[in-house]
Design a protein that fits this description.
Blueprint: H1 3-37, H2 42-53, H3 55-84, H4 90-112, E1 118-121, E2 124-127, H5 129-139, H6 141-167, H7 173-203
Antiparallel strand pairs: 1-2
Helix pairs in contact: 1-2, 1-3, 1-7, 2-3, 3-4, 4-6, 5-7, 6-7
Length: 205
């Protein structure tokens, strides 16, 4: 597979990655809503259950997640090629590698090595993921700080990735400023969103 094709597929996978991240963040912000409203995880646990049991939501999430994995694989191929040819930004490659390590750690902590209790909501027994996550962040300051750092890293990486992707497209100059502002707003919003979750449970929960 030649380099331009890999770049195009990687960009498409990057869009899926963005959608996956936005979806992931939107659901996770319900954690803070539950904490503020003192609803004991009702909204988050209900949404988590819905995402796992509604066929459309489940398919969309897994499709975006697959795009996320594909983006990581292809981005690494491109990164190694750039290193070999002494091209590209080393900072972008390093940030991508650090985020990959964090992603593996996150999956191990939240998907593999976990013990989940169940709670009855609307007459249905559902996993109490809210309790697990809130306790995780409130009782592990070192992991909370790691997740906050990763949120910042993700925002910077996304902004750089957007800029790199836009450069490959011939866009009229009159739209470039608007696109640049949109990229910054999107990247910083995602950064702040992921930063707030561990921050809230560590200091305010």
């Amino acid at each position: 597979m030649n380099k331009p094709i890999i770049s195009i597929i990687s960009s498409i996978a990057g869009i899926c990655t963005l959608l996956f991240i936005v979806l992931h963040l939107a659901v996770n912000l319900l954690l803070i809503l539950d904490a503020i409203a003192n609803t004991q995880g009702y909204y988050y646990n209900s949404m988590h259950y819905f995402m796992q049991h509604n066929s459309v939501a489940y398919t969309l999430e897994k499709t975006f997640a697959l795009g996320f994995v594909l983006h990581i694989l292809l981005a690494n191929i491109l990164a190694f090629n750039k290193i070999r040819n002494k091209q590209g930004s080393k900072d972008m490659i390093i940030m991508g590698f650090l985020l990959l390590i964090f992603t593996v750690l996150h999956v191990l902590q939240f998907k593999v090595k976990r013990t989940i209790e169940y709670v009855e909501l609307d007459g249905v027994l559902k996993p109490d993921i809210y309790q697990f996550i809130s306790h995780f962040f409130s009782s592990n300051w070192q992991y909370s700080l790691l997740y906050m750092f990763s949120g910042i890293l993700l925002g910077v990486h996304l902004q750089n990735g957007f800029v790199s992707m836009i450069k490959k497209i011939n866009i009229d100059k009159k739209y470039q400023k608007l696109i640049s502002i949109t990229i910054k707003i999107t990247s910083y919003s995602i950064m702040i969103g992921f930063l707030l979750i561990p921050l809230y449970f560590l200091f305010f929960s």
